[in-house]
Amino acid sequence: MELILWRHAEAAEGTPDEARPLTGKGQRQAERMAHFLSGHLPQNTRVLVSPALRAQQTATALTKKFITAPNIGTRATPQTAIATAGWPLAGGAVLLVGHQPWMGELAAFLMTGHADYWSIKKGAIWWFSRREREGDYQTVLRLVIAPDQL
């Protein structure tokens, strides 16, 4: 299984939090990353997106065919996000478009087996794979990239 975490791009300040739109810079970040992802995502990748406007706008730069998933909203936990994705048994590829702090916490858990706070840059992706080697299941970090690195 492939699990790709895509943090929403830069958003404007304001309230309510769920209605914060992308800034001009955020729109450019989302478009840059979407261009990269469109050339690298496996076919039939399921795209699950937080209902927050900034996450919806980030995902729309890639595709309009996504599922809004309230379980990965601004108040999500790593546990609800991983369950929503079906990691590690669902198979195929899943792209989650969401928020800090749950994304950083999930990345830390996948890499170390322990909850911790890791920072994920706005607009960045963290790409994980699950594989079996000699009867042992392993989580592999395949890629970490931010929009300013493209």
- Percentage of residues in DSSP E strands: 15-25%
Counted up, domains total: 1
Major sheet characteristics: 6 strands, mixed
Order of helices and strands: EHEHEHEHEE
- DSSP strand count: 6
Shape: globular
Q: What name does CATH use for the topology?
A: Rossmann fold
Average pLDDT over all residues: 96
N- to C-terminal distance = 25 Å
What can you see in these coordinates?
- Helix content is 28%, strand content 25%.
- The protein is α/β, with parallel strands linked by helices.
- It has one domain: Rossmann fold, CATH 3.40.50.
- The chain has a 6-stranded mixed β-sheet with strand order 3-2-4-1-5-6.
- Helix 3 (78-85) packs across helix 4.
- It starts with a strand and ends in a 5-residue tail after the last strand.
- The relative contact order is 0.24.
